[in-house]
Amino acid sequence: MSSSPEQTVPPLGYGAANVGNLFRPLTDDEAWAVLDAAWDAGIRHYDTAPHYGLGLSERRLGAFLRTKPREEYFLSTKVGRLLRPNPDHEHGGLDTANDFHVPDDVRRVWDFSADGIRSSLAESRERLGIERIDLLYLHDPERNDLDLALAEALPALEQLRADGEVAQIGIGSMVTDALAAAVRGADLDLIMVAGRYTLLEQPAAADVLPACRERGTGIVAASVFNSGLLAQSEPRRDGRYEYGQLPEELWERLVRIAAICADHDVPLPAAALQFPLQSDVVRAVVVGGSRPAQLAQNAEYAALEIPASLWQTLAAEALVPA
Q1: What angle is formed at CA 99 by the lines to CA 146 and CA 79, rounded to 5 degrees?
Q2: Which of 110, 100, 108, 121 is nearest to 24 (CA)?
Q3: What is the C-alpha to C-alpha distance for residues 48 and 14, in angstroms, rounded to an integer?
Q4: What is the reported pLDDT for 9?
Q5: When you count CB atoms within 10 A of the terminal residue's CB, does the N or C end of the chain come out lower?
């Protein structure tokens, strides 16, 4: 099967982990309503993965997108984890250890071999019910074996692209060292930078962005609300930061950023959503959401006109790169 020619990635995407029952279960109807709201808001970029809900996200997203003209949307999924029968499921467990409220009748098995990468793509196509995948990411390679990813998985992705199986390839990670190493070690089209180039903190600016400029690789920014800290205009001190408490120095930074946004009459979430796109190497921002209203609101934030003076003030105070 040959993929279509490379397609420009739409600047606002929906990350479909929530329709895989991330953090809370959704019925099929509730998940459909979320995807319907994304489409109605004009979102035409959808990202999923086998990891999300042990395949549930791909199945639900595929069922929805099969009702839409294929040429009207951009679809990405991920490889690196195969889903295989779970021999321990006889007791009827859930995948809540990974924050997904789904039966753990299958388990994730790392496989960075060329055969494993091809199998993952074939199985994702089957779950989605869609042949054409526009972009294929290697998912969290550092959580398994980054050296093996560089030696085997990324060349396998390059071969898939050369064979016309996918148009674009990349990796997705929240670890800057892994992202920079992959960009320098392979010919990647786009990488997904999760939570490392946000309005609150920009560690990817030190090594990942320069590597992307040097190699001609684009960035899709994900987790731009920093675990929800930037999702409301009035930050909360008890907000969750990744896997624990928000450090004091980041809280002070967040308060200052929120004050500057308020001074410019810009909602903090709108600034958070649009900030990554100020960079010359960022092509798109992907955001999640488990309620229809969130999708409509995010689309409004993405379209809001933000004065250049906001970015200038943030840069002048060394809160974002100049």
Answers
A1: 35
A2: 100
A3: 9
A4: 96
A5: C
What local confidence, expressed as pLDDT, does residue 262 receive?
97
Rg of the chain over Cα atoms, rounded to whole angstroms, equals: 19
SS3 annotation, 12-50: EEEECCHHHCECCCCCHHHHHHHHHHHHHCCCCEEECCC
pLDDT in tens, 218-235: 999 999 999 889 999 998
Cβ-contact 287, 301 below 8 angstroms: no
Judged on CB neighbours under 10 Å (0-12, 13-18, 19+), 87 is: exposed
Q: Are 179 and 151 in contact (CB under 8 A)?
A: no
Cβ-Cβ contacts under 8 Å for 189 (sequence gap 6 or more) = 6, 135, 161, 167, 168, 169, 170, 217, 218
Reply yes or no on whether the pLDDT at 192 is more than 50.
yes
Task: Identify whether 52 is a catalytic site residue.
Answer: yes
With a cut of 60, say whether residue 5 has pLDDT above it: no
- Phi-psi sector, 232: left (phi>0), alpha (psi -120 to 50), beta: beta
Summarize the confidence of residues 9-32 as an average pLDDT. 97
pLDDT higher than threshold 50 for residue 4: no
52, 137, 197, 301: the active-site residue: 52
